[in-house]
Write a structure and sequence with these properties.
- This protein is of the alpha+beta class.
- It has a single domain, classed as rbstp2171, CATH 3.30.2220.
- It is built from 5 helices and 3 strands, in the order H-E-E-H-H-E-H-H.
- Strands 1-2-3 form a 3-stranded antiparallel β-sheet.
- The longest helix has 12 residues.
- The chain is globular and about 55 Å long.
- The protein starts with 14 loop residues before the first helix and ends in a 14-residue tail after the last helix.
């Protein structure tokens, strides 16, 4: 199986073709080189979504079956995110899935797709 690798912004991947094929598509940007950040330093980027030296992966919206499987991993949310990242990858730099530190970073972003809502149960 041939995999393609992209190290460029979304214009290197035909996002419109991905949307036509899969419906909703999400871009995950992961910094290629690990840089230790000062947790007390305020970012100076004008564009908060821009990650310097990022590689990109594209994932489709997970199916109900994939969400159910991911939810079976809760309370370990990182594992739940990994299920989504691995099963929904459709294009981009394969290192985001194959390299452990990039995969964990991507998985943390994929947790947002689980849309966990607060609920309550009350006996009447």
């Amino acid at each position: 199986m041939e995999t393609k690798s992209f190290s460029a912004p979304s214009n290197a991947v035909d996002v419109e073709a991905l949307k036509a094929k899969y419906g909703e598509v999400y871009q995950i940007a992961v910094q290629e080189i690990f840089v230790k950040h000062d947790p007390y330093l305020v970012p100076t980027n004008e564009d908060e979504d821009e990650i310097e030296g990022a590689v990109f992966a594209y994932i489709r919206k997970p199916t109900a079956k994939e969400i159910n499987f991911a939810m079976s991993k809760v309370p370990n949310l990182i594992e739940a995110g990994k299920v989504i990242a691995k099963n929904c990858f459709v294009a981009g730099d394969r290192r985001v899935i194959d390299e452990p530190s990039m995969f964990t970073s991507a998985a943390l972003q994929c947790i947002e797709l689980l849309e966990i809502r607060q609920a309550s149960l009350k006996k009447l």
